Input
Amino acid sequence: MSARLSRFRRSTAAAAAVAVALSLAPLTSATAADAPDLADRIASVEPGSAKDGAAAKKSAPQGKKAATRGPAATSDHANGAINRSARIADVNTNQWPNDGTVVRTDVVQDLAAQRLRATVTLKPSAADRFIIAYFGEFSGATCHPRAAIAGGVTTADSAGQFLPGSTNTFAVSRSRSGSTLTLQSAAHSAFRTAEYDCSYVVVADRSSGDPAQLFYAERLTTRWQPAFTIRGGEPLQAARKGKWVSMRLEVRNTSRSAARNVTIRAAGKGLKIKPKSRNLGTIGDRTTKYGVTFKVRVAKKNKSRKLTFTVRGTGARTATKKFTIGVAPKPTKYKSLSGRYFWGFASSSATDTKGWDTQVIWFLNKKWAHFGAPKNGAVPKCRKVTKACKKYTYNRKKGIVRIAGKKAKINSYGFRYQAKKDKRRFYEPVTFPKKGKRFGTDLINQDWRGNCLLTCTAITTNLTLDKAGRFVHGSWSVGSWPGLGSSWATIPPDRRGTYRVIGKGRLELRFADGKRERTRIALLHNALNKPSATSGIVLGTKNFYFQD
Output
C-alpha cells in the first residue's frame, strides 16, 4: 500500500485522500499499473485548493486568521463559538474525472459536541465509492488537510484520521437514508480546539482507490452564540455588621454576536440584596457593560453566605459568578507588636515618577522596628539606630505606636505613618506563611515609571504559584513618548522554576537556569482580615494582588 501511495506524493492533499481510501480497501495488482498515469494527471491541480482562490480570499471572521492561531482556538468555544460549517458543491473538473456520485456535502466542525460531521447528498444511482471529507487550514488558496472522515456509499466501511500521518485515527459512524449519507466522528477534544477553517471532499473508487470526484475547498464559517463573563473583584467580600457591601460588576459579551434582552439576577440564602435584578438591554459583540451595581449584606448573625449572580440573554449561554459575603470583624488593639509585619503604600500623584511606592515595617521585638526588605529574606538584627533600624514604643491601652519619635494610632487593620523625609503611608498587616507552605494563586502587579506628561512606561507583572511548588514570574511593558509620537513594548521571557518556604516568612526561588534567590514573603489579608494568598502576596516590598 505504501509503494502505491508514494506515487501520489506530488500532491499532499491527494496523497491524504488516497491514503484514507486505501486504508479502507487494498488496491489490486491491476490498479498499480494504472496509478502512475493517474498521478501524472492530478499532480498539476492541488486537490485542497479553493476555486481561483475565491474561498480563501473571502474575509475571515473578525479576529481570525486564515491559518493556525494556536491557543486562541480554545477561547473561540469559550467565547461563544458553536460550530464551523460550509456547503461543498463546486466540483473541480480541471483534469479530474467527475462521475457525479456526490451532489453536495454539508460539513460541520461541532465545537460544542467535539465532533466532525459530513452530510452527503448522493445522486439516485450512486456507484460503489468512498467519500472522504477533509478539514484543514488555508494557506493562501490551499487547504492543508488536518483531519479526514470517510465512509462507503454502498458499504458500512468508515474511518477517521488525523493528518499528516496514518497512525493517529479515530472512530467514525456511518448511516444512510435514501440519497443522504451521514458521517460523524466520535467525540474528541481536538475537534473543539482545532483551528480548521476550510474543508473539501474527495470521492474515490472503492476497489481501485482512483479519484472519481474532487470538490474545491470552501471556507468554514463560524456560528456564534452570545456568551458572558462576570467580573466583580475578589471572591470574598465583606463589610462591618449591619453595613452594605457595595459591588460594582462588569458584564462582558465575549462572543462575536450581540446579546439582546440581557438581565442579571442576584440570589443568596441569608442575604439582603438591592436590587434583586437589573435589565442590561443589548450588549454588543465583544462589549462590556460597566458599572452594574448591587448592594448586599448578611441578614442575620455573622456567618458568611454565598451570593450568585446569573446573566441571561435571548439565545445566549447563561453565565454565573459566585462570591462569598461576610461580616468584617471590628478593629481591635494589639496586645503586642512584637513579631508583627506591615506592608505600606503611599498615594501617587501626577508629579510622581512611579505608581506603587511601597515599604515594609517589621517589629522585630519590643524595642526595634526594621524598615525595608531584609537582605536574602533573613531575620535582620538591630543593635543601633540606622536608616533601617528604628526604636519604637507601644501603648497597648491607647493603641498608640511611636516610631523614631513619631506616633501613630494602630489597630488590627493597620496604621498611617510618615517617617522622616518620607511620604505618608498606610500600613496594613500582612502575615508570614509557615515553613513548607504551598499556594495555589495567580496574582498581578500593574505599575508605571516615568513622567507621564513627557514619557512613561506601564509595566504588568504576573506571579503564579501552584500547589506542586512551581512558580512563573512573567512581565511585559508598554511605553510612550507623546512629544516624539513614539511608543514601544517589551516582553522579556518568563522566569520560572520551583519555590519553597524554607522558614517562617522566608521564600527560596530556584530558577530553571540554576539561579537561586531568597526573599521575605508575606500574605495580604482578605476582607475578613485573615491572611490569604488569593488576596495577595508581598515579596520583599513588592505587592502582587488578585485581579478578576
In short: The chain is about 10% helix and 50% strand. Residues 24 and 291 are 60 Å apart (CA to CA). The two ends are 56 Å apart (CA to CA).
